Amino acid sequence: MLRRPLILFTCTLSLACAQEILQLDKIEVEDHYSVIEERKDNSIAKRIIQGEELTQYGDMNALEMLKRTPGVTISAGKGKKGAPGKGYTKVLIDGEEVSTTSRRGGSPLEQISPDMIDRVEVMSNGSAEYSAEAMGGIVNIVLKKPKADGKTTAKLTGGAYNEEPMGSLYVQNEGKSGEISYVINATLSDNSQADDGETRITSLGGYSTEMNENRGRYRGINLNTKILYSPTTKSKYTFDGSLGLNDSNNDSVENRYSNGSSVADRTIHTHNEGEGITIFTKLKGEHHLSGTELVEWKLKWHENDQEGDQTTLQSATKSDQKDKNSFRVFGVDGSYSRVQGDHFIKAGTDIKRLTQHDDVTKLTNGTLTSIEESSLRENKGAFYIQDEITVSDTMLITPGIRYEVTQRQFETDKTIDYWAPSIHALYRLSPEDNLRASISKTVKLPRLAELSSTVDSSLVQNDLNHPDVTGNPNLKEEEALSYELRYEHFFEDKGIVSVGGFYRVIDDKIEKLTTWNGTRYVERPENAGKGKLASLEFELKKSLDTYVSGLGIFGNATFQHSSLMTDGVKRTIKGTSDYLYNIGIDHRLQTYRLTYGAAYRYVGGYDDPIDASGVAESQEGYGTLDLYATKRLDDTYKVGLNLKNITSSTITTTSKRYVTGVLNETQVDQENSKFHFLVTLEGRW
Fold first, then answer.
1. Among 226, 251, 308, which Cα is nearest to 274's?
2. Higher pLDDT, 114 or 181
3. Distances in Å between the alpha carbon of 434 and those of 281, 394, 399, 426, 437?
4. For the ranges 137-146, 234-243, 320-329, which has the lowest average pLDDT?
């Protein structure tokens, strides 16, 4: 009866519990403790995806990888290619929040190679230990830690996207010297992309067809190091440092043909370029006061700077927009954990300062037309206490409460504070079956880009799906109460099947509305009303080795239903797909040391009714098929082949604008993506 609570205790104390051996009085975790066992025993529902599962499909960065991760609804930024869910999921890297960026700035996740990741933890409902800004759940990306002495890994990848070259190099070294162990890795990537699209606009004055061609090149360098110093068996210090450099260039040509003409009456050349730097640093200490007490502390610094320049040329008119944005975070946090009888109590505090500054400069034919600046400073503080209670051999209950306060200095000073209680329950129906339930309160604070009144112009290409983008200084935070119920069955072969669902009630739901101001289309966020979102989720991972040696299957599916009450009118939440799923198969031929498989991802469409600005939008569902094969040549080398997006998926979005109830304009956008392939050579010494 004693061993399982102790395992739970040490798992909660350290994310590295599956990789280390800790022997402190009665606390012991063994390195054969698998992620499946950890998932089964954890008091809070958590999906854990191992690093090997994340790299096999050839995703080039963490942002791509998260799209196929079950339970994740992270947004991919501009365009219609983002994952559904509008970015509700909170993403952490080694427990630290990823910074927000400007409207044009790239995501820090694009700087992380999947080869750097040890595993991904997905929690669909918030807990007191983590941020209350966890609407839609939490994803924690755990980077690799030292595991071996004197081990070097190198991976070379080359390929082509629609005949445009792609390539990357990943190198990692890990070792140990006395009381110090370390891992250092570096990623160098240089990828190109070529896509095309088509837009058809029908209005009262006629119709036009716009043909778009886009070519881009994206380069990045990322250096990451993790150093562990263990002077005694009861103390450990960790330094994390990461430096990312990136630059991008994108050129597009749009030709417009009006009323069926075969001759273009308008040609727009657009050039985008940008560069940025991302820095993460963290110093962490762990001190075991006894076999049942632990104190942890962290000092952290995060910096993200981006610069961008967009130029459009139409006839003799040249329009420029230059963007600069910087983001800084400095913080300190600490926690105290204690096992007391059947209780595992953890209390902690978190204090940090965030600053962000954006500059937007516009020019026409080289003449300055406007300069806009916006700055935001936030001071955040939080305190939480959480208790994991072993009620019996078969039941754990984890209540907790978190208090957060945010002081914002932006145009006018504002203080926001809230309590976020939560409770999670685990009932073991049998050694292989779990029943879980949870209730939590979460919030979503507006980002600077959503508050700032500066305008990110679409320049010449201004239409329903390419509006100017601005913020709303009067935007309020969202608050939600989420309920979750889940059943899990664990197979002896480390497989799992689960079915569950959640129900979320959202106050002051934020939605983006596109309006016509008489001369241009402008998009801005608004607090639309009270929303509700219900979801049913399935997950399966199972070996079929009994029937076919080395064969395995996996899959997950999410079905959603939403509603929003705004101005007395009930409709669906904008951009919410009815369903999405991932399915796949893997087969290992042991004799030939060959593994191959396929994965298919489908995102269902949506059909939004007319909103308050008179705009309705719908999107057709689309699917993507990926294939992979890897062969181990010997104990040192392995080769791989990835065939990605074989279906060359097309995303079709239809937008309609009504004026006093009469259809005024219809726009149909098609974004076409292309097949691409990758070849890899990996060695380990």
1. 308
2. 181
3. 38, 9, 18, 7, 10
4. 137-146
CB 618 within 8 A of CB 606: yes
Mean pLDDT of 248-260: 91
pLDDT at 635 over 60: yes
Residue whose structure tokens are 């700055």: 375
Amino acid at 30: E
Beta bridge partners of 351: 332, 381
Reported as a single tens digit per residue, the pLDDT across 18-67 is 222 222 222 333 333 466 677 777 888 777 777 777 777 777 777 777 77
SS3 604: coil
Query: CA 685, CA 590: separation in Å to the nearest integer?
Result: 22
Cα torsion through 465, 468, 474, 479, rounded to 10: 30
CB 530 within 8 A of CB 507: yes
The partner residues of 257 in beta bridges, in order of sequence, read 209
- pLDDT for residue 4: 35
Using CA atoms, how far apart are residues 268 and 255, in angstroms rounded to an integer? 7
Task: Quote the distance between the C-alpha of residue 168 and its chain's center.
Answer: 22
Q: Look-up: residue for tokens 């072993």?
A: 390
- DSSP, residue by residue, 336-347: EEEEETTEEEEE
Does residue 175 register a pLDDT over 80? yes
pLDDT in tens, 435-458: 999 999 988 888 777 888 888 888
Torsion angle of C-alpha atoms 683, 166, 78, 662, degrees rounded to 10: -130
The CATH class, in words, for 3-684 is: mainly beta
Angle at 199 between CA 193 and CA 205, to 5 degrees: 155
